[in-house]
Design brief:
By secondary structure, this protein is of the alpha/beta class. It has one domain (16-254): Phosphoenolpyruvate-binding domains (TIM Barrel, Alpha-Beta Barrel). The protein has helices spanning 6-10, 26-34, 54-63, 77-85, 99-109, 122-128, 132-142, 152-156, 158-162, 174-181, 192-207, 219-227, 238-254, and strands at 18-21, 39-43, 67-71, 90-93, 144-149, 169-172, 211-216, 232-235. Strand 1 (18-21), helix 2 and strand 2 form a beta-alpha-beta unit. Helix 2 (26-34) runs parallel beside helix 3 and helix 4 runs parallel beside helix 5. It binds 3-hydroxypyruvic acid and magnesium ion. Keywords: Lyase, Metal-binding. Residues 20-242 form the HpcH/HpaI aldolase/citrate lyase domain.
Length: 255
């Protein structure tokens, strides 16, 4: 049976299970898929992953049957094209604040006439199983350009950002967003002002017909954010899962 596209999977009956990868290891990313994540996001912003290891990680996730997502460092829009070339199906751009930021990102994500993505997707073609022509003509629609909403400016400019052609969705970073909203720079992942802002993002994104995701630091927050109506919420990180499982295993032995 043909694997559904990421866009179709995101529109499914239940939210996609999405893992978060910081460690630069294809095997670790593959194991997360085999253990139950249907998609894994490679974090090139805060994780240790770089363009040297990302291609092998994207391939490992996809070979195990998962969808491969990636987050670029702040403002490095040219990396978005490279990650698409190596098989990313969604690219997330952090700290987008204005429609101009979103336009600059979208230009690197979409082939002409929609944008200015340069042509060279040999590996993405291989991983897709499509012909080169079929990949080229479907890529603008099948790969997703997702902007992070995590500052006061981004909230203020949200409708203008959502209206930028080529932007397929938004992704809330609740750490940065809550720090930005707090008068004393304190994070608060389920603080009432953070939740109210996230509800607003969901409402506006859905009204614009866009995908909306959020970073979920743990299971309780994932449930909370999905309850607000987010299309998907990523669950923890590989580093945290390893630490949590290690503590639990030691506690089980030692009681
Ligand atoms: C945030 O919460 O600000 C993030 O970017 C998650 O990594
Ligand atoms: Mg952030």
């Amino acid at each position: 049976m043909e694997r559904p596209s990421l866009r179709a999977a995101l529109a499914g009956a239940r939210p996609l299970r999405v893992g978060w990868s910081c460690l630069p290891d294809p095997l670790a990313a593959e194991i997360m898929v085999r253990a139950g994540f249907e998609a894994v996001l490679l974090d090139l912003q805060h994780g240790v992953i770089d363009m040297g290891v990302a291609p092998a990680m994207l391939a490992a996730v996809r070979a195990a049957g998962g969808h491969a997502l990636a987050r670029i460092p702040v403002g490095e829009y040219q990396s978005a094209s490279r990650l698409l070339d190596w098989g990313a199906e969604m690219v997330v751009a952090p700290m987008i604040e204005t429609a101009d930021d979103a336009r600059a990102f979208a230009a690197f994500m979409k082939y002409p006439p929609d944008g200015q993505r340069s042509y060279g997707p040999a590996r993405a073609v291989q991983l897709s199983g499509l012909s080169a022509d079929a990949y080229r003509t479907s890529a603008n629609g099948s790969t997703l350009a997702v902007v992070m909403i995590e500052t006061r400016a981004a909230l203020a400019n949200l409708d203008a950002i959502l209206a930028v052609p080529g932007i397929d969705g938004v992704f809330v970073g609740p750490y940065d967003l809550s720090i930005a909203l707090s008068p004393d720079g304190e994070p608060g992942l389920d603080r009432s002002d953070t939740i109210a802002a996230m509800e607003r993002v969901v409402r506006q994104a859905k009204a614009a017909g866009k995908v909306c995701g959020a970073f979920g630091a743990n299971a309780a927050l994932v449930r909370r954010y999905l309850g607000l109506g987010f299309t998907f919420a990523t669950l923890s990180t590989d580093m945290d899962l390893l630490a949590v499982a290690t503590r639990a295993a030691i506690a089980e032995v030692e009681g």
